[in-house]
Amino acid sequence: MRKLFLMGRSEAGKTTLSQVLKGEEIVYKKTQYTYAGDSVIDTPGEYAESKEVGVGLACFSFEADVVAIVVAADEPFSLFTPNCNAFLNRPLIGIITKIDSPYANVPMVKQWLQNCCCEKIFCINNMNGDGLKELKEYLSLPVRKISLDEAMEKQSRGLADWE
Question: Which among 5, 53, 105, 147 is most buried, taking Cβ atoms within 10 Å?
């Protein structure tokens, strides 16, 4: 499985998603530090909420194969600006959680994630497993390794190394 980096607002569902992906029992726990496990890197929401420590997200993202912006479907605004993928050199995906919320506005959240340049967007219900199969299939794809020469050639054409 490709290593997944999760970033998003506090209470967006990052830790619960991490537990579900690992097949663990869902237990609420506040993420106090960046946890870089074997397949998922879980980060505190405060990193995304604060410009003072937000740069730490970019540093931790280099340890992952895929970076995910996690946004709850019932959030009233997005923390992430359009084209925020500019600081990444990894594929960026969007994950919408809490799609079962009575206040969910999935089309609006999808638009936010499209504006962030997410190449794929997954709608997930952590409680009943809706959408998890598609995410797991995506994460099970092999990591494509390229040489420095290939990366430099793609960069000269303005392409990301995974394109």
Answer: 5
Give yes or no for residue 54 having a pLDDT over 70: no
Structure tokens at 115: 């504006």
For residue 20, give every residue at least 6 positions away whose Cβ sits within 8 Å of its Cβ, in sequence order, or none. Answer: 26, 126, 129, 132
DSSP state at residue 78: -
Query: What is the distance between the alpha carbons of residues 155 and 6, in angstroms, rounded to a whole number?
Result: 25
Return d(Cα 58, Cα 85) in angstroms, integer.
10
Query: Whole-prediction pTM value?
Result: 0.84
Q: Please state the domain extents for the chain.
A: 4-156
pLDDT at 43 over 90: no
Superfamily of domain 4-156: P-loop containing nucleotide triphosphate hydrolases (3.40.50.300)
Q: What is the pLDDT of residue 25?
A: 81
Q: Is 162 exposed, middle or buried (0-12, 13-18, 19+ CB in 10 A)?
A: middle
CA 107, CA 157: separation in Å to the nearest integer?
Answer: 33
> Are 74 and 98 a contacting pair, CB within 8 Å?
yes
